[in-house]
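User: For my dataset I need records formatted as: sequence, then structure tokens, nothing else. Please produce one.
Assistant:
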Amino acid sequence: MNKELVAKINEITNKRQEDGNYFSYLGLSNKEKIHSAFLANLLNQNGSHRMGTFFLKSFLAHIYGEEYIENLPFCYSSVYTEQFLGQKTNEEGGYLDIVIYIGSKVFIIENKIYAEDQENQLFRYSNYINKYFPTSEEKGIKHLIYLTLTGKNPSLLSTRINIKETPDKKYWKNISYKTDILPWLKCVIEDKQVSCMSIKNDIEKYCENIEDLVEKETMNDEEKDIVNSYSLKDLNNMKDTLEEIISKYQREILENGFKEFIETCLKEVFDSVLFLENESDIDDDSKGYIFEISKNQLPSVCIYLGFQPFPLYCWLGVGDKNTYKKWYYLNTKHPEWDAYIPFDNGKNAEIFSKKLLDDENARQQREGIKIQLKNGLQSLFEDCGYKGYFD
């Protein structure tokens, strides 16, 4: 049992405010231990939710049906994570991700997000059930659960059984985050018994994280299908074609991404930000964006951002709404922002591409631009006599 994770969940529950959630505090990760700790806390009748066996009953009812759980002694249930079964051999041992004890029965959940199967893993866990909980196994009920994002089967390496050849010998139950955990949790938060908003919020945030992981896994499966459907020569030809398309539309990718980035930066500074129009007649290589801003009940003014994509080169202007189109020609640029070239040529589109927003290097570089933009705007407003907009 991972006592540190369970203790952390309990600590967070006691201290968090109404809009808190364990999962964000723990740190979203694709490691099974994080997800196992969250699920086990829900399934534990002594979990931080303080709802007794409600979650455990609803989970097993979802997996096995209402009729099966009617006679289970839930008051004698306990749930653990990372339970050690002893030194690993070919026949026994290892760590159980989640184990549920109810009276004389046991339910084991092997939780797989991205980790690979271990040798003889499910085979060893099945031996544990058969040896110590022989009454657990009932006709049609499999107490060893294999949980994955999209319902994949375990490997022959883990089970010692080729289920394609001998499907009748399958001794585990497949469930998935996509078709089991998500529907169960979404059903749970609609139940009238779950009245605590913080618990609802915790589960909703967790579901959002799981949906992201499932989407990525689904995309990975589609990519594998594509690779398996074509020859290496075909794939190389596709790669060349895609590179041509990316090169052709790189400017458009950068322009759209940078405009959205600038708009987000402005909204962090001013009360109201309204995009007015593109100024595309500057010259063949440059483009301008015009925003109307307001703050603290002061008169609204317009900000002009001139933009040259390759390499990234920007300048700023500020003025009243009636004269903003003259900014560029009147040379109302500001030296603190003018001629700023933050990246190597060709890298700009990557920095502002939506697909790379979670890249740490890109995130740091965007933060640098954001700071320089705000400093440049503040100095420009002061130089041009617009007071109070940065107070």
